[in-house]
Design a protein that fits this description.
six-stranded antiparallel beta sheet; about 130 residues; about 40% strand; about 20% helix; Thiol Ester Dehydrase, Chain A
Length: about 130
């Protein structure tokens, strides 16, 4: 799966969950450091966006492919991201012919305690 170049700057990698859905994994490193010992908010937002894109591309692969363009992104920060490995996954709430809605969540120790969440809308140009 082709992911945005920003994925490399975050040093994020793609894993598959037990159910086959994509999960992005970002290690803590100097390039994502905000205040000492914590993640920078832009790095968290970027990870959420990449997770949403991975989920959407994964779904589109099963439907013949297509290009996506972001329409809008809203991010909610719930708690500070500490100096730990961070994971993020997207969940498609609507996949229409021309528009998709995706939620994404980032967590560290416990998936049930997210550090941030995002809602994104994408324009889809089907192949």
């Amino acid at each position: 799966m082709k992911l945005p170049p920003y994925t490399g700057l975050l040093k994020a990698t793609l894993e598959l969950a037990e159910d086959g859905t994509p999960v992005m994994v970002m290690p803590f490193h100097d390039d994502v450091l905000g205040r000492p010992g914590f993640l920078q908010g832009g790095a968290i937002s970027g990870l959420l966006e990449v997770a949403a894109i991975a989920a959407l591309r994964h779904a589109l692969e099963n439907e013949g492919g297509g290009r996506i363009k972001p329409i809008n992104v809203t991010v909610d920060f719930m708690r500070g991201g500490r100096g730990l490995e961070t994971r993020a996954a997207g969940r498609i709430t609507r996949l229409g012919n021309r528009v998709a809605n995706v939620d994404a969540f980032a967590w560290q120790d416990d998936r049930s305690r997210p550090i941030a969440a995002a809602r994104m809308n994408y324009l889809i140009e089907r192949d």
